[in-house]
Design a protein that fits this description.
411 residues, alpha+beta, four-stranded antiparallel β-sheet, 8 helices, 31% helix, binds ligand DP6
């Protein structure tokens, strides 16, 4: 009798932190120096999809990313994740049921695909490792009640720290934990994707030609050399985590926005405090900060509260969080200073109202806005805008979405 096909496909979302993870206390287990908190973005716009198949006909574990083979090196994070998933399969399924197929002993072929260009400078490691772990979890039937997303987050964390937060939708905390083995350094959901439906995210893809310092290398240099980091991890973040969780639960956008911007600033301050200093933001990033600060100033003066919050990861792209009622104004403002290539922006969430062929036609600053806070840039300084919302956690996909052909190699 021929072997049945053991295969599963899953997709996973991107997450953007509002309290940043920056620093490891254990670099091989990927245990952080502080807790962090993120918002999961909708997979309708940004996602990684992964298919995993186990077969006795395969020679060894192999992985392809966007069609290109990525060699699984011994001791690599990839190898760790696959090994840990096989171990979980053995312990939770095969050791308990003598009839369960011994999938943990078979080599796997894994194909992964990001629906957004890596060149856009968007972190793909978080969604990538979350999709890898999710597809293996389905392949190995490591689903509830056998495991939970928090259990799987322990393994995704060892692929890339921020990946552990992509195991949940909505608003997600990564609790730093305290055990040396990392068993309590995991992701938990603070609120699900339906909790705050008014929340939108606008990603401003900022041109960046030079190759920057990777997160992994950068954060370790910060841990080794920055004195400011000690203040951040001991005093600043613990207090902010509590405040942020409360702000999210109470849907208090003013606090959410204030803390998000303060924490982005704090992270870039410790990067600057590193020896030699690390700069992730560029002039365009800073101009976007000036626009959001001025937008909020005008609004706060009118007693209308914060309208938007910026945050930046280890690169120049801005992510702006804003509410339904203000998203149109935010887009109009960004486009005013950063004109887009005509026809490029797809109003996929219909906030501009149908019929806007060229987004530059709607460019506008709000009343009372000091236009001198930034200069209008050439087309392409912000090379794209991605407008999205809060989304759900990993999804299991049907066989028709498989990335592997009949022969077990990428299609
Ligand atoms: C600035 O998760 O990419 O995006 O654990 O070394 O893989 P490794 O780092 P990574 O770091 C992300 C850092 C950040 C902040 C955040 O997402 O919390």
């Amino acid at each position: 009798m021929s072997e049945p096909i053991y295969e599963a496909t899953a997709s996973a979302p991107v997450n953007i932190a509002v309290i940043k993870y920056w620093g490891k206390r254990d670099t091989s287990l990927i245990l952080p120096t502080n807790s962090s908190l993120s918002v999961t973005l909708s997979q309708d716009h940004l996602r990684s999809t992964t298919t995993s198949r186990a077969s006795s006909s395969f020679d060894k574990d192999r992985l392809w990313l966007n069609g290109q083979e990525d060699v699984i090196k011994p001791g690599s994070r990839l190898e760790t994740c696959i090994r840990e998933m096989k171990k979980l399969r053995k312990e939770l399924v095969e050791d308990k049921d003598a009839n369960a197929p011994k999938l943990s002993t078979l080599p796997v072929h894994i194909a992964s695909y990001n629906n957004f260009p890596t060149a856009a400078g968007l972190a793909s490691s978080a969604s990538g490792f979350a999709a890898l772990v999710s597809s293996l979890a389905h392949l190995y039937t490591l689903t509830p009640p056998l495991t939970s997303p928090s259990t799987l987050s322990l393994i995704a964390r060892q692929g890339s720290g921020s990946a552990c937060r992509s195991l949940f939708g909505g608003f997600v905390a990564w609790e730093m934990g305290s055990t040396p083995t990392g068993t309590d350094s995991l992701a938990v959901q603070i609120a699900d994707e339906a909790h705050w439906p008014e929340m939108h995210a606008l990603i401003c893809v900022v041109s960046d030609d030079k190759k920057g310092t990777s997160s992994t290398a950068g954060m370790q240099r910060t841990v080794e050399t920055s004195t400011l980091l000690q203040h951040r991890i001991k005093d600043v973040v613990p207090r902010r985590m509590d405040e942020m969780i409360r702000a999210i639960k109470e849907k208090d956008f003013d606090s959410f926005a204030r803390i998000t911007m303060a924490d982005s600033n704090s992270f870039h301050a410790v990067a600057l405090d590193t020896e030699p200093p690390i700069f992730y933001m560029n002039d365009v990033s800073r101009a976007i900060i000036a626009l959001i600060v001025e937008l909020n100033r005008v609004s706060l003066e009118k007693g209308e509260g914060y309208k938007a919050a910026y945050t930046y990861d280890a690169g120049p792209n801005a992510v702006i969080y804003t509410l339904d009622k203000n998203v149109k104004e935010v887009i109009q403002l960004i486009v005013k200073y950063f004109p887009q290539k005509a026809g490029e922006f797809k109003d996929n969430l219909q906030v501009l109202g149908g019929g806007v062929a060229d987004i530059n036609q709607v460019a506008q600053v709000p009343e009372g806005f000091n236009e001198k806070v930034a200069v209008v840039r050439e087309v392409g300084a912000v090379k794209g805008l991605i407008h999205t919302k809060v989304g759900d956690g990993p999804r299991r996909l049907g066989d028709e979405e498989s990335l592997l052909g009949k022969d077990g190699f990428p299609k």
